[in-house]
Amino acid sequence: MRRLKNLIVICVLLSGCADNRLPSDAELIINFEKKISTFEELRSNLCKRSNEQIIMMDPEWSKPSVPESEKESFYKTFREIGVMGVYYDGGCSFRLPAWSVGLAGGGDYKEYVYHPNERYKEALVVTSLDNVNRDSSEIHFYKRQIRGDWYLVFEHWP
Description:
alpha+beta; 32% helix; globular
């Protein structure tokens, strides 16, 4: 019986260790190019809003809350384009997190960003996010333009 309990604990722990490999710029850009119409449809929908909005799938939460039908529509779009949610900052500026790792505020994030706001004013402009410094003890933002006002951004929060 004890072995069975240990085996169950190990299985539960391993199931939480899903592949969380950092996607390459190329993978994210290919995804963006293949699904550009869905990204643009989402942009159009978000840019009609006047207030800040957060809608996340995992963990599931939104601020301010949105009707269930609207949330499900967003979730369908998020799954289609491979992101975890949206942080809409107002002024037609938003972030779509595609990858993250870390706990309690510290961590790394790779995101699609439309019309970067003041948050990214000091971001280092790079030609690739694939080899940015993830070991620094300082906060760093890096950005790389995809096309027009669309960017890939890497955030490092130690």
